[in-house]
Amino acid sequence: MNKNDIYRTLPKVDELLKDEFIASLSESLPNKIINEAISFVLDEYRDLIKNTSDDNLNKIDISVHNIVNKIITKSNELYDDKLKPLINATGVVIHTNLGRSILSQEIINKAVENTCRYNNLEFDLETGKRGSRYNHLEDLICKVTGAEAAHVVNNNASAVILVLSELAKGKNIPVSRGELVEIGGSFRIPEIMKISNCELKEIGCTNKTHLSDYRDAIDENTALILKVHSSNYKILGFTESPSLEDLSMLAKEKELPLYYDIGSGSIIDLSKFSSFEEHIDEPTVREALKYADVVSFSGDKLLGSAQAGIIVGKREYIERMKKNQLTRALRLDKIIISILEQSFKAYLDEKKLFEKIPTLRMLSMTKEETEKRCLDLMDIFEDLKDKYNFELLDDYSEVGGGSLPASKLNSSVLAIESKKVSSEKILKSLREYNPPIIARIKNDKFIIDSRTLLDGDGEIIKKALEII
Ligand SMILES: *Cc1c(COP(=O)(O)O)cnc(C)c1O
């Protein structure tokens, strides 16, 4: 057969659509997807035939059976969820690339229950008139943080833009060179200030800024004093920056508001957690509010809830932000409002807090607990001992999410060595498993950090290891 004959033997689209396996596929998948898969597979065959030398043409399998199988595989691949769950075995709790803080099933379920029907999102049940979507959260946030007033937007980056646009538009703000930070991808304080139409006055040096630097920079066109928490890096050694208390005294003296972008936004004092290797010094929102007039933080970092930017502080400033036009552009969806409500409610009941906020449960886990979890994993992996060596090692987990960069969590981790394949091969195979399992390699050893595993993950990892 020459190439033209082979092209002609390829089945036609309508023939394929009549194939019994493809017909039954259309019961579960949209026709659009199946048609796309058919075109894809036939194109692939045409390319293959074109690029194959005449001598090798007979090696191409153009049986209908083979073509149909490829179409089924491709259809499933095209229709597979793009955003899907995976197993985090990295030990990085607030993993920026793996969904930041995760939510408990209980909180998600409650939020779904409250929003999958019509609801009172913007309806005042007492008066029967229009209500505000922000009322559902404000009192609760104030109760939990001790703030006078609160406002919530899409994320903390937009919270910073809103605060600066409202309080500092067309004016200047002195910022310490040590706080001109970039956080995550593309959130840079100097750029954010440009977007917010305010002028940045750089003061001090990267490692040292004195209160007098602030005092000297303040003029009649200064809008506020800004402090940015250097949440994702730490300058060590010969360093100095004025305390929040000093800044607040200066702000009062100059009659300017003090705004603290605290970033992670811890509600509880994390220094109580014995899981951290060293004493940690992360300000809580309540502490920050003692001195700052306005404080903003993320919903999905240390708070452990959904993506949001929470702004708390003096009522006079918060009310101005609520009225700003940007608030409409940055507004939250009902499902997020409901999740935030459930998360803040969890903080009212300390007994159930760790159950409802996985981020806090994982951060508080002691080394002994991680060791116990690794031993449980070894029990699950018992049958795999002829293929792998298992070993407990001392290591560190990380908070992640640009929170507490220098604070390590003491952990026992499980090192797994295959008797046949390399650690890189295990890493890759597990990543390609369904569900994907993400882990790390340290000193050539494949490491499972149990701190971030959820119920049932051990059994799935076992199945993935079995087939390597
Ligand atoms: C994380 C962070 C932000 C950005 O918050 P998002 O919720 O990611 O938008 C801003 N400022 C600081 C100090 C942060 O740590």
Kindly describe this structure.
This protein is α/β, with parallel strands linked by helices and about 475 residues long. Helix content is about 40%, strand content about 15%. The strands form 6 sheets. Strands 2-14-15-18-17 form a 5-stranded mixed β-sheet. Strands 5-13-12-11-10 form a 5-stranded mixed β-sheet, sandwiched between helices. Strands 1-16 form a two-stranded parallel ribbon. Helix 4 crosses helix 5, helix 7 (about 135-145) runs parallel beside helix 15 (about 335-345) and helix 16 crosses helix 17 (about 360-365). The mean pLDDT is about 95. The chain binds pyridoxal-5'-phosphate. Pyridoxal-5'-phosphate binds near residues 157, 187, 263 and 402.
Helix fraction, binned, reads 40-55%
Distance between the termini: 41 Å
List the ions, cofactors and other small molecules found in this model. Answer: pyridoxal-5'-phosphate
Beta fraction: 15-25%
Main sheet: which strands, in order across?
A: 2-14-15-18-17
Question: Structural class of the helix and strand makeup?
Answer: alpha/beta
What would you report as the Rg, rounded to the nearest angstrom?
Answer: 28 Å
Residue-averaged pLDDT, rounded? 94
- Categorize the overall geometry: globular
Q: What are the segments in which pLDDT stays under 50 over at least 5 consecutive residues?
A: none
Number of strands: 18
Report the major sheet: 5 strands, mixed
- How many helices in DSSP terms? 20
